[in-house]
Queue: 3 jobs
Job 1
Amino acid sequence: MNASYAEILGRKIIDKEKNVKLGFVQNILVDKNTGKILGLTTEQNKSINALDIINWSPNIIVKSKKQISDKKNNGSFLNNMRVETVSNKYLGKVNDFSFDCNFLIINGILCFKTFLFIQYNQRIIPYSAIISIEEKKIIVKDDFEFVKNALKSRLKLKENISIEMA
């Protein structure tokens, strides 16, 4: 099952044993090195390990209240992070991202630029194009590399043929 940040945000967190509400999802923690979902944070600044979540939909169901801790995981919050290419071209800020609930891995990010509350240049960037997730920004492959690799795979070009973009 796939889910997105926007879908998960604000969902109820429910204790399976006692069937009581424990809080609401405030944010999703992501491992900067692997792109794995580490857990969730609640509005009370508590965290839940993603491995302790039994069900992601329609509510977040955890095994028991014992799985909620005061400790913060060493993850990052991707929402509103800058997205730049390797050549420092600004692509926008992360607005949403999707992930696989079973394997707890990011599938891709949605970013766009804004000007006076107007959103433009919306892009969906697959996880395979992400080079690194840093403290305040995400570095992705250059646009040229996207086009070049797409052309190579579509046209099945040999390595000795070069592609020039005007």
Note: The mean pLDDT is 85.
Job 2
Amino acid sequence: MTKSDQEKYIRLLNAAKKKIAEKGLVKTTVSDIVKEAGVAQGTFYLYFPSKNAVVSAIATEHLENLFFTIKRKSASSHSFLSLLHIIVEETFSATDYASDVLVLCYSGFAIGNAFEEWETIYEPYYEWFEQELNIAKKRNEVRQDLNTRQTVRMIINLIENTAERLYLSHEKDISAELMKIELLSFLKHAICTLK
């Protein structure tokens, strides 16, 4: 994509987030999005085959930003526990910051019945985390009997679900800090070799 194309794509994405947040996915039209972005209607279809395709692009952008931050911050981590801590911290932070975007994505995927697409978006994250878990197995930091493929999905889903329960449902019976401590303790006892 050229710089100009990238700028239009970002304008469309930001306009879609804004208009869908204001009006909801069903009531937002492509015309609303292009008007907000300041581009012609045909330009929208150069980047997205449908309005629902924007939801996938928004979800991809959110996850890529989270994944990039986790990888950058974990580059110098020397243990699986420190990696888990970074993943929990960054997932909670991203969920708090982008709670409106996540609600939009979930509703869009539910309307479009496209949860399989959500899993496809997550695949690079799963693959990276599976490699990290395999390294931890070789270092005897985690249980040797773990099915790494399934375990990474369970860990990521547990962390995200816990953060979403806090920030999307506004559950306030426990603070975010206490919830993160409990979550990390649970994960440590479930998968790590205790020394």
Note: The chain has two domains: 1-48, 51-191.
Job 3
Amino acid sequence: MTKKISLNDKYILKEGKIFLTGIQALVRLPIIQKDLDEKNDLNTGGFISGYKGSPLGGYDLELFRAKKYLDEKSIYHQPGLNEELGATAVWGSQQGEFKDRGNKDGVFGIWYGKGPGMDRTMDVFKHANAAGASKFGGVLAIAGDDHAAKSSTLPHQSDHNFMSAFMPYLYPSGVEEIVRFGLLGIAMSRYSGCWTGFKIVSDVADSGKRYDTEIERLPIIIPNSESLGEYKDLPRNILYEDTPRDQDYRLQRAKGFAAQEFVRANKIDRSIWKDSNSKMGYYSREILQ
């Protein structure tokens, strides 16, 4: 018997293989995050905001098309008037627990914007990352990079901005890694208290392939805090009462190192060729076909 195929499979199918583009994978990501939270007995919501721009130019349109499926999972998409207002709104999603009146354990946030839009959002990123992400929320900041300046006034890459804001960031190389790294990024944000950057380029956003949902069931390891040594007891998540000096101290002493421990535990960075006598190394994302 021939299996009936629907265009909606990309957002409702939980097992098997489906065809996904990079942009559609970014839309599927929060739906899968909500499913994982439910399996872990967490009652969470999602909030997505930002400003469109190539290579993420069609992301907001795809979110609108998937509104029915996002609403079913308590995931709300509100485009920003500009990039920094969108980021500020996402920052606010991490403060819901302070009001003690919500019906959610936490809200995971997703910001999106074109690389040059990230330039103008740096003040928000620095303050929000220093303040921290919530324990059951977490933030993924998706930056669309136009390396070749195909639709930008200058070539752009977001790596230096993420580093300047002391934000760990992930760089998926294909459709499956968008979902896998996205789930890891939100988990890392919750554990470390940092916002997690997410670098997307055109050949990833515009790509498409047969996607195996099995990757969504790979385990995510949450390390203990013992490796943080004397700073293991420092709070890493967002606090109601805080000072700039305390925020910076925790960011420098605990949160960044916690993100590194998460990366090691989940083997995100891998050495392909090892040689103890090497004097030079190459750093690159993997190219997935």
Note: The CA atoms of residues 51 and 82 lie 6 Å apart.
